Amino acid sequence: MVVAPSLIPRRPGERVKTNRRDALSLARLLRAGELTAVWVPDETHEAIRDLVRTRAMAVEDYRRKRQHVTSFLLRHKPPPARHEEGNNQPLRPTLRKDRFNGAILSDSVALPGKTAQAYAFQAATAAISSANSTILRTRLSLNCAIRYRRA
User: Fold this and answer.
1) pTM for this prediction
2) For 89, left (φ over 0), alpha (ψ -120 to 50), or beta?
3) Residue 102 has what pLDDT?
4) Neighbours of 50 (CB within 10 A)
5) Shortest CA distance to 73 belongs to which of 128, 132, 135?
6) What's the number of CA atoms in the CB half-sphere (13 Å) around residue 45?
7) pLDDT tens-place string over residues 69-100
8) How far, in Å, are 48, 70, 119, 139, 142 from residue 146 at the CA level?
9) At a CB cut-off of 8 Å and minimum separation 6, what does 32 contact?
10) Phi and psi dihedrals of 82, rounded to 5?
């Protein structure tokens, strides 16, 4: 039986300092039926969990990199057009997933003579492409692992 330490009932102020006292306390609780067993995932479940964590990190990384490019565009592009006559809020640059490649975005940013900014922009868009490919690879691996698990 595997029991999570957080699920072991303890009285307020009870501090077990030795292995012997701890063992006696656990034996009493087990005999009384007050211990709750937990499920221990096997290797396949742990592998799928690792893939899910990796995908979540990649999605967060992708989001951050997109925000970085959006901020870059807001700093270096000319002021965008206004929504309507009565609305003073400027339009933000729209960055759609299917338009996130260097060819389309590099045409939308005019950086004549600013090689450092152009390099920074290219590096940021390359990082977005890398994060996006990580998401796609992880999703594919996750689908394969789930199909294998069901079979």
Assistant:
1) 0.62
2) beta
3) 45
4) 14
5) 128
6) 4
7) 888 877 876 555 555 565 555 555 555 543 44
8) 8, 35, 40, 11, 6
9) none
10) -85, 160
